[in-house]
Amino acid sequence: MFERPDGGDNAILVHIDFTKQHNIEDFTEFKTLVVSAGVYIEGTISGTRSTPDSKYFIGTGKLEEVRLLVQATKANVAIFNHSLSPSQARNLEKVLQCRVLDRTGLILDIFAQRAKTFEGKLQVELAQLNYMATRLVRGWTHLERQKGGIGLRGPGETQLETDRRLLRGRIEHINNKLDKVRQQREQNRNARRKVAIPTVSFVGYTNAGKSTLFNQLLNEHVYAADKLFATLDPTLRGMHIPDVGKVIFVDTVGFIRHLPHDLVEAFKATLEETASSDLLLLVIDLSDPEYRAKLDQVELVLSEIGADELPIIQVYNKIDNITGFQPKVEYNDDGLITKVFVSAQANLGLDLLRKAVVERLSKGIVQLKLKIPFARGDIRSKLFSLGAVKEEHMLEEAQAWVLAIRVPILEIQRIFAHEDNSWQDYILD
Hints:
By secondary structure, the protein is of the alpha/beta class. It has helices at 27-36, 60-73, 86-96, 103-114, 118-133, 142-147, 159-194, 210-218, 261-266, 268-275, 291-304, 350-361, 377-385, 409-415; strands spanning 10-18, 40-49, 77-80, 99-101, 199-204, 235-241, 245-251, 279-285, 312-317, 328-331, 337-341, 365-373, 389-395, 400-408. The chain has a seven-stranded mixed sheet, sandwiched between helices. The chain has a four-stranded parallel sheet with strand order 2-1-3-4, with helices on both faces. It is elongated. The relative contact order is 0.08.
């Protein structure tokens, strides 16, 4: 969808601070995004305006400055750290005589590079198609090259109308496939709910260290790198935790300020996994001077996907980059751990994080005595396999065992999930 010459792209970056806007973009993050996309930066243009120009987004003086720099450096693309309207992009391309890409298009390009799974590629393509739908007039021939133009055009139909028709058909086709993915994910979630397997999702700003933390906690080897959106496709792994039982951990795509709406929509199937979690580990790069603003952006996205009311532990990562900072935890008024300070890279404080996860997930631990009939040795065996049995004796006259157990309520619910009787029916009065 976003094509590059074989030699790569050489870009001029344009960043404008608008004095009458509150949501100012970060220029440092913008450059990091461009580098993550594999683009060589030929030069940068910055400036200040009160409001965007309706025709060119930037003023005519600044436009001429960009045009001369593009001409001098022979750059083949101008990338704006803002969202451009289709008409603004067209007008800029006419003057600059090169491709023009806005912030949304840049993020979509990075996602297109990172997507590895079939589902991930579908989600990215859907977001790209929705983004490109309003830009067809600039000449969109992606599907024509894919399917061939001859024989596809209806009588009296213009090329633009043909492209729009093909576009709508492709979007509908992808949506149908993603609906099946959502249904499969929902079935998997329902199956986990039936056996009461809790889900813990790693969320946070892109490049906060989620994948590194995921690897350290679970002894996994998912891809982790010091670049934006290193993780795009979600990874689910199961792990047995003492006093809790089996837990599913999910490594998710990172968020970013002003995450394109089309991406949020396209990745709904993935984001639903986060929204249905039992616990969120919100990973924050404490060494980042902008971490508070980025935390606000993450909380905004969580609110958009309906995950802001879930239990959250804030995990402040990369403390090894701060001189003298030691691992620690902070508690709320109820005595629960709400903040953990760690370094995934240096393996510092991870024991504290494990303790916090166990604390949140094991609040439902029960201690009681069960009377299990001799005929139900399978239930007794399952309780022993969990290490839940603390004492046992037999009641010969009642043909039953009496078991003193200490077990997470989640585990005992799993054991009796497919039984006719509830576990409460076996409690010894």
